[in-house]
Amino acid sequence: MKQKKLLSTAVAVTLVGSVVAGCGSNNNDAAESTSTPGAAAKVQEIKLNLSAEPEALDLSKSTTVVAASVLNAITDGLYRVDKEGKLQMGVAKDLPKISEDGLTYTIDLNPDAKWSDGKAVTAQDFVYSLQRTANPETKAQYSFLMEWLENGSEIVAGTATPDQLGAKALSDTQLEIKLVSPKGFFTEMLAFPTFFPQREDIVSQYGNKFAADADKVIGNGPFKLTTWNHEQNLTLEKNESYWDAANVKLNKINISIVKDAGTALNLYETKELDYTSISGDNIALYKDKPDLVTKPELTNSYIQYQTKDNPVFSNAKIRQALNMAIDKQGLVDVVLKNGSVPATGLVPNGTKDGNGEEFRKVVGDILPAYDVAKAKALLEEGMKEAGLTSIPKFKLTSDDTSAAKKSLEYVLSQWKTNLGVEAEAEPLPFAARVEKMKSRNFDAVIALWGADYNDPMTFLDLWMKDSSMNYPNYDSEAYTNNVKAAQKELDPAKRSQLLVDAEKQLIEDLPVGPLYFRSAKFLIRPGIENLILAPSGFEWDAKWAEVK
Length: 548
Description:
The chain is α+β, with helices and mostly antiparallel strands and 548 residues long.
């Protein structure tokens, strides 16, 4: 590529594998040596856990890591990220040919790429997918990514038609994508689900029920979805039509949906699961054992405050007071205990700034520290400005997993103890919490966001005034202008400064109150190799996984 990359493909990736048999935990059946002469071959099946039910497995409408992990297993994009964090070929035969001005990408496709029903994957499948996501009738939350493409903004706004999008099938096996402005990380983004192909005939056949059940989903990836018992389990089986099936070792992946961390741990210990997240005091049980793996993450947690038509949260000082009254060090030390650290801004540690530096180090620690006295003063000032003599009781929404409920209880306790503010806990199933956010029908909600790519923009473009993901209805012209200017700025140093200014504005207004930068820990059965835990985009990638 001609221009400086904003995202290095050599990002840190946790790879589960090369574990010595018999070490640490005594529940290591999967790790028995296969080097013994005459040893039976291992059954190539693994049992994973998801802490929530995926929403419909629709590439245009999906927004969660839970769904993205399944979609990445059953669908191949143009590229896939390997254990070294480098791009490997998916449907593409080679890396894109990029024009001198950085605007036109021409990609040749592998003619052997097929859908699970044997039909060839074509360039038009990618064009259709991008057009469908850009089409306002689809109501895709990630439609803003299509604004990077020629005419994308106009299509999303409804002033142009989807067929005018800067994506064209030059032939069945050659795809052309035209951008509005150069983006050094765009090739890496082609490994993200929003840029995966879709079958127009299948989407049309099932209409509103498309991707809602196993028999209404089709993929072209290393696995195919064969069963989906909602809120219970999913089964993925090897896709024999996959172009690279020879390098897919697993024959089956059984996925359970277990929300309660204690239950999931019990299932792991009784070998009903080979993989699950672990947090809190349970982490100490596996200290120094090979099962315990830390996943590097670019993920933040925060509280979104509904700023529109809300007598409490329309006032910035009240929002600031609530955030300042939470002891975030206590949250990570007492509740999470997983290596997470208190937030010092919105953009998490490890995020690059696109100018050769780490964004957090460039901006510094800009989130006001925990200070009960100052929080009380801010609350009093904010209430006067809002004409309130007391804070009306409101709901704080979160997921209903055991870990999420503990965080919810902690925050509510901090507000009551430090400010005398009482709020009602509203733990909801994952899908219900996401839908509540999307409908913008909430008072305050605890949420997390994992990076789609390693750049501050993936955290900052959410809160622009016209963003489809601006659930708090944050309305700052200064903030939106800075982010939009950064989207068009070609000079890396100037672009970085615009993003710095945007984050500072956001922290000053605080429509979202950062809590912590997450570090996640997982248990993985020793003997399972090459199960990749990615720092962004997906929770896991099992294409190259195998049982040794």
